[in-house]
Amino acid sequence: MVKASKPFLLIILCCAMTTVYAQHSFKLTNIPGMTRYQDSLINFSEGVQNAPDNATRFALNAQFIKTLVNSLKTPSSFSYPFDSLKRISILESPDKNFRIFSWYLPLDDGSYRYFGAIQMATKDGKLKLYPLIDGTDNLKDTNAQTGNKNWYGANYYEMVPITANGKTSCYALIGWKGNNTKTSKKLIEVLSFEKGEPIFGKAIFDQKQNPGKNRIIFEYNKLNSMTLTMEKSMNMIVFDHLAPFNPEMTGNFEFYASDLSFDAYKLTGGRLKLVENVELKNTPNDKDEFYIDPKNKKIQPIKKL
After folding, report:
1. Does the keyword Signal apply (predicted)?
2. Which of the residues 131, 135, 159, 237 could staple to 12 if both were Cys, CB 3.0 to 4.6 A apart?
């Protein structure tokens, strides 16, 4: 693992912890400037993905972070979608209180390093940016609650508000976490805010086995795929049931893959309740690419995040 990344992490830490004053309620006026920032970000992100070695990746990523932070200092930048920036994920909360940026660096040894930031919009017009510092290597307990400075890094692709009595208490973040040369991971992370500070991990999962989970982590063979997505029509986060190729491989996740059945977490009363052996209706929608028909054994999983 490359240790030279710490100075670059400090760049985003030092820059992003500054409160930026902007009028979120005002219309973004400097669109040309933001477009120029976006063009630069695209160039840096493409360079990162195509870099020949770790040193070059981290150097370009540092430039990317610096440019991103500068762009977000632009008044009303919260309104700019960065919709041409395809190499990173940008998820906005349904209540428009914040958005979360996340991305990853593939490293020479087959592992990954994760980066991100949370941009918050406050009622008085101030914008706050919290850096997300990947602390995966230093986390002794992957079930621990963490802050933004010891984040269990991931590349998020869906955000699900968790509500109770008409109020949103937290958000389920669904993400991909490439692991190493043998396995990949996906996860359901829970983001909440306490006294304005982001907290990752919350025990909202109801299940008989392994109760008290703050986050749910799935690990499986890198050459296989795994469905993990929100199915709004069912009000459930649906996922492939992972199993070893044979019982002797139990616990060795290099040999885990989907058994073509599905389980789910149902959203109910501000919690996520495990429901096993879910029958998918497979109604046409924009999430169809995530699904594999459990009744058709001839269909082979396609590789996806």
Report:
1. yes
2. 131
d(CA 185, CA 153): 11
12 CB-contact burial (10 Å; exposed 0-12 / middle 13-18 / buried 19+) = buried
Contacts of 254 by beta carbon, 8 Å cutoff, 6+ apart: 182, 183, 221
199: β partners? 192
Which pTM does this prediction carry? 0.85
Query: Which of 134, 169, 190 is the last residue before a domain boundary?
Result: 134
* Number of C-beta neighbours around residue 127 at 10 A: 22
Residue labelled with tokens 């699900």: 160
**Whole-number Å distance between alpha carbons of 296 and 35:** 46
- 236 Cβ contact partners less than 8 Å away, ≥ 6 residues apart: 230, 264, 265, 266, 267, 275, 278
Q: Determine the structural domain holding residue 114 and report its residue range.
A: 1-134
Give the pair of three-digit tokens for residue 75: 């008044």
Residues 289, 163, single domain; the answer is yes
Per-residue pLDDT of the chain (305 residues), as tens digits, is 444 455 455 455 555 444 443 334 456 778 899 999 999 999 999 999 899 999 999 999 999 999 999 999 888 889 899 999 999 999 999 999 999 999 999 999 999 999 999 998 856 555 689 999 999 999 999 999 999 999 999 999 999 999 988 899 999 999 999 999 999 999 999 999 999 899 999 999 999 999 999 999 999 999 999 999 999 999 999 999 999 999 999 999 999 999 999 999 999 999 999 999 998 875 444 444 443 333 333 334 433 43
- How many domains, in total, are found in the chain? 2
Q: Which of 103, 231, 97 lies closest to 157, judged by CA?
A: 103
Residues 30 and 126 in one domain: yes
144, part of any domain: no
Residue 143 lies in a domain: no
